[in-house]
Design a protein that fits this description.
CATH class of chain A: Alpha Beta
Number of domains of chain A: 1
Strand content of chain C: under 5%
Helix content of chain A: 25-40%
Number of strands of chain C: 0
Distance between the termini of chain A: 19 Å
Shape of chain C: elongated
Structural class of chain A: alpha/beta
Largest interface: B-C, 108 and 68 residues
Largest sheet of chain C: none
Radius of gyration of chain C: 23 Å
Chains: A alpha/beta (230), B alpha+beta (393), C mainly alpha (100)
Shape of chain A: globular
Largest sheet of chain A: 6 strands, mixed
Oligomer: heterotrimer
Number of domains of chain C: 2
CATH superfamily of chain A: P-loop containing nucleotide triphosphate hydrolases
Strand content of chain A: 25-35%
Radius of gyration of chain A: 17 Å
Helix content of chain C: 40-55%
Strand order of the largest sheet of chain A: 6-7-8-3-9-10
Number of strands of chain A: 10
Distance between the termini of chain C: 67 Å
Number of helices of chain C: 2
CATH architecture of chain A: 3-Layer(aba) Sandwich
Number of helices of chain A: 7
CATH topology of chain A: Rossmann fold
C-alpha cells in the first residue's frame, strides 16, 4: 500500500473556457488523478488534448471550473487569485516549453526572479542562485545575458529557476520540444535526480524519449480532455 | 532588513534595470518631461519672484493715488482738488505729481517723466540714497535712470534735449543718475521738477497728473478712499492694497503666457500618456505573464509599474525644478525675458529676489508628476491583470 | 552596487545640489534685501507705484494705476502689445475695493 502523502489530487475536474459564449471550449472533462509525493509521472497526448490546461490547474495558475483540485494539501476551487499565486510560488516550480527566460536579464537574475517579491535581499539571492547554478554546472554563465547562451544551458537555467524556491512539485511542459536527443536525455537524468531527492514531478510531453523514460512511475494519456492511466 | 522594505527595494531594482534596458527611450522621455517641468517651474518661479520683489519694493507706495477720469480715460486733474482733499479727516498729506511718457522717436524708447516736489513727500530723506548726484532743483535739471542715460548715449555728457509738443527743443542738464540696483524701479525714469515737466509736456498751470494722498492711520485707507470717491465722483481712487493686489494677481495663471505654458505642458503630457497607454508590446505581455507564473502577484506588477513612473517623473521633476531655478535666478529668466519685456527698448536687468516656497514646488509637482503617475497607473493595471496562463500556452 | 542604491545616491546628489542652491539663495536674499534700501528709498521719495519691467506701453509699464481701456489704446482697432501684454492677467481684481 502506498502510504506516501498525496501531493496532487484531481477529482472530476473540468475546465471550460468562455463558458456560456459562442466560443465556449471544454478543455477538460471530469479528469481524476492522484500523484503521490516523490512520484514522477507523464501526461502524454497530442497538441490540443488538454495537457497544458491540466498542467495549469496542477500548477495553481487557475482553478478548475468544476470538480475538486487539491495541490500540496490545499484545495484550489474557491481560492482567489492572490492566494493561488502565494500557494503557487511556495509549492510549484515551472519549466516552460520554450523555457521563457527573459533574454536581457543575466542568467543569475533570471534564476532569482521568483525571489524578488518575497523580499529576499541581493546577497541571499546570489547565494541561492549561485548554489543552484553550480549544482547544474552552469555557474560559469551566471553573469551572461540569458539571450546569449546555448539551448542546453537555457534548459538548465529554466530548471534552476524552477528550483529556486525549493518547491515540492516540479511541472514541465514539453521540456524536450526544442532539444536534441542528447540534451533530452540530460534533462531526464536531472529530473530523475530530483525525483530521488523527493520532488514530485509531472512532465507533459508526447516525446517518445520522455514517455519511455524508465524513471517514470506512471503515464496518463490525455485525449480530448479526458484521461486514461497506463 | 525588514522584508517588506527589502521587497520594495527589489521592485525598485527591477524597475530601474527595466528602465535602463530601454535607456535611450526612457532618457528621452525624462528629458522632454524635465524640459516641460522646467517651463512650468520657470514661469512659476519668475512670477513668484516678481510678485515678492514688487511686495518688497512697493511696500511704501502712496497709500492712495487719485486720478481724474473722463470718458473712461485718465486726464489731467485740477490742482483745486488738492485743497478739497487736504482738509479731509484722516488725510495727513496730499502731494500733486506731474508724470507722463516721452517717446524718443530716434531710438523707439519710452521714458517715464516724473515730476514731484520731494520736500513734500513723506520719507523724502531716503530719496538721495538711490541717487548718485543731487536732486533736480533748477531750470532744466533732471536725474536719469540708467536705461535713459544709456538710450540717450550721453557717454560722459551731462546735457541733452527733448522735444516739446510743438517740436521745439527743451534742454536738460543731468544732476544725477539713479544708482545701479534701483533699475527695477528707475530704469526708464527721468525725474525733474514740476515746472520743467509742465514745460516739456505743455501742461498748463492748475493741472496735474495725479495726487498722492497719505493717510494718518493705515487701517483707515479704505475708509478715506471711499470718502474721496464720494467727494470727487469724477476721479478714480487707487489704494495701496489694490496696488499690492495687482502685483499678486497680475502674473497669475489666467495670464496669456501662463496659458501658453500650460497648454504646451498639457500637450506634452497627453503625448506621454498616450505613449504609455498605447498598449503593451508582445515582449512586455510575455514578461508579465512569466513573472506572474513565477509567483509575482497583480499588486507586485502594479507596484513595479508605479516605481517606473515615479522614477521617471520624480527625477524629471527634480531636474526640471533645478534647471528652472538656475534659469530664473542665474540666467535672469532668459527664455521669458524677451517675452516679458516685449518691444521695450529700455530693458532693465532682472535681478530678482529668490522667492520660491514649498507651495510653488508642490504646485509644479501637482501639475506635472501627478498627471503623469495617473497616466501610468491605468495601463499599469491593464498590464497587471494579464493572465499568467498565457505564458504556459 | 544595487541599482536602488545608485538611484538613492543620485537623489542624494540632486538633493545636495538643491540644498546648496537654496542656501546660496538665502545668502543672496540677505544681500538683496540690503541692496534694497536705496530702491525702497526712491519708491518712497517719489511715490512710485509700479516696477519698471516692460516699458513699451502704458498698461505694461504702470499696470497698477492704468485705466482699463488702455490695452485697447485710443482706437477700438488698436492692438494689444504682444508678447509682453500676454504676461498680464485680466485686471478683474481692480473691481473690488473702492468701487463696491
Amino acid at each position: 500500500m502506498d502510504t506516501r502523502e498525496e501531493m496532487i489530487v484531481l477529482d472530476a475536474v473540468s475546465k471550460v473556457y468562455n463558458r456560456g459564449r459562442a466560443n465556449e471550449v471544454v478543455a477538460l472533462r471530469e479528469v481524476s488523478l492522484t500523484v503521490a509525493a516523490g512520484e514522477m509521472v507523464c501526461l502524454r497526448g497530442a497538441s490540443g488534448s488538454g495537457k497544458s490546461t491540466l498542467l495549469s490547474i496542477i500548477g495553481c495558475i487557475f482553478p478548475p471550473t468544476s470538480g475538486r483540485a487539491i495541490i500540496a494539501g490545499k484545495p484550489l476551487s474557491r481560492l482567489p487569485d492572490r492566494f493561488l499565486t502565494v500557494h503557487r510560488r511556495g509549492h510549484i516550480g515551472f519549466i516552460f516549453q520554450q523555457f521563457n527566460v527573459l533574454p536581457e536579464l543575466s542568467v543569475l537574475d533570471n534564476v532569482t526572479l521568483p525571489l524578488l517579491p518575497l523580499g529576499i535581499g541581493p546577497t541571499e539571492r546570489r547565494r541561492r542562485g549561485g548554489e543552484l547554478l553550480a549544482r547544474l554546472a552552469i555557474d560559469h554563465r551566471a553573469n551572461f545575458p540569458a539571450g546569449q547562451i546555448s539551448g542546453g544551458e537555457l534548459q538548465r537555467v529554466a530548471i534552476a529557476r524552477a528550483l529556486v524556491n525549493d518547491p515540492p512539485i516540479i511541472l514541465a511542459d514539453e521540456p524536450t520540444a526544442h532539444l536534441d536527443s542528447r540534451l533530452s536525455l540530460e534533462f531526464l537524468e536531472i529530473m530523475s535526480g530530483l525525483k530521488g531527492a523527493g520532488k514530485t514531478i509531472v512532465i507533459a510531453s508526447h516525446d517518445q524519449l520522455v514517455t519511455e523514460c524508465p524513471a517514470l512511475d506512471r503515464t496518463f494519456d490525455v485525449r480530448d480532455g479526458r484521461i486514461d492511466v497506463s | 532588513m525588514n522584508s517588506s522594505l527589502e521587497k520594495q527595494l527589489n521592485l525598485l531594482d527591477y524597475a530601474l534595470a527595466s528602465l535602463w534596458r530601454r535607456k535611450l527611450k526612457n532618457l528621452g522621455v525624462m528629458g522632454v518631461f524635465a524640459a516641460v517641468i522646467c517651463l512650468i517651474a520657470s514661469f512659476q518661479f519668475l512670477t513668484a519672484s516678481l510678485t515678492a520683489t514688487a511686495e518688497e519694493l512697493l511696500a511704501e507706495a502712496p497709500e492712495i493715488v487719485v486720478q481724474k477720469m473722463s470718458a473712461g480715460r485718465q486726464e489731467a486733474l485740477p490742482l483745486g482738488y488738492l485743497s478739497r482733499l487736504e482738509g479731509l479727516h484722516g488725510v495727513r498729506g496730499a502731494v500733486p505729481r506731474i508724470w507722463g511718457y516721452y517717446f524718443n522717436e530716434t531710438t523707439g524708447a519710452n521714458y517715464t517723466v516724473l515730476a514731484v516736489d520731494p520736500a513734500r513727500m513723506p520719507g523724502n530723506s531716503r530719496l538721495l540714497q538711490g541717487i548718485e548726484g543731487s536732486l533736480p532743483a533748477g531750470e532744466g535739471e533732471a536725474v536719469l535712470g540708467s536705461g535713459v542715460a544709456a538710450d540717450l548715449e550721453l557717454a560722459g555728457r551731462s546735457a541733452f534735449s527733448l522735444f516739446r509738443p510743438d517740436l521745439s527743443l527743451k534742454p536738460f542738464a543731468v544732476t544725477g543718475v539713479f544708482r545701479p540696483g534701483t533699475e527695477l524701479l528707475t530704469a526708464d525714469l527721468l525725474f525733474t521738477t514740476p515746472a520743467e515737466a509742465r514745460d516739456l509736456f505743455a501742461i498748463p498751470d492748475g493741472l496735474v497728473t495725479d495726487l498722492c494722498i497719505y493717510v494718518a492711520n493705515p487701517a483707515e485707507i479704505g475708509t478715506v478712499a471711499k470718502k474721496i470717491a464720494a467727494l470727487l465722483p469724477d476721479t478714480r481712487v487707487v489704494t495701496r492694497p489694490q496696488i499690492s493686489q495687482t502685483y499678486r494677481v497680475i502674473f497669475g495663471w489666467r495670464s496669456g503666457m501662463a496659458s501658453i505654458c500650460l497648454l504646451a505642458a498639457l500637450a506634452a503630457f497627453v503625448i506621454l500618456a498616450w505613449d504609455k497607454a498605447s498598449g503593451l508590446s508582445v515582449e512586455e505581455r510575455r514578461e508579465i505573464a512569466i513573472l506572474k507564473v513565477l509567483g509575482w502577484q497583480t499588486g507586485d506588477i502594479l507596484l513595479l509599474r508605479c516605481w517606473e513612473g515615479l522614477v521617471v517623473a520624480g527625477l524629471a521633476w527634480l531636474i526640471g525644478c533645478t534647471a528652472a531655478w538656475l534659469h530664473v535666478f542665474l540666467l535672469e529668466g532668459a527664455l521669458f525675458k524677451p517675452m516679458l519685456l516685449g518691444w521695450s527698448v529700455v530693458r532693465p536687468e532682472l535681478h530678482l529676489l529668490p522667492a520660491v516656497t514649498g507651495g510653488d514646488l508642490l504646485l509644479v509637482f501637482a501639475l506635472s508628476v501627478v498627471p503623469y503617475l495617473a497616466a501610468t497607473v491605468i495601463p499599469a493595471w491593464r498590464a497587471a491583470i494579464i493572465p499568467p496562463d498565457s505564458a504556459v500556452r | 552596487m544595487r541599482p536602488a542604491l545608485v538611484f538613492l545616491l543620485l537623489l542624494l546628489l540632486l538633493g545636495v545640489v538643491d540644498g546648496v542652491l537654496y542656501r546660496q539663495a538665502g545668502i543672496r536674499r540677505v544681500d538683496w534685501l540690503q541692496a534694497l534700501a536705496p530702491a525702497a528709498g526712491v519708491a518712497t521719495g517719489l511715490g512710485l507705484t509700479d516696477l519698471c519691467l516692460a516699458t513699451e506701453a502704458r498698461y505694461t509699464r504702470h499696470p497698477a494705476v492704468t485705466d482699463f481701456l488702455v490695452p485697447f489704446m485710443d482706437h477700438p482697432g488698436g492692438l494689444e502689445h504682444f508678447p509682453s501684454g500676454s504676461f498680464w492677467a485680466a485686471p478683474s481684481s481692480f473691481q473690488r475695493g473702492v468701487r463696491e
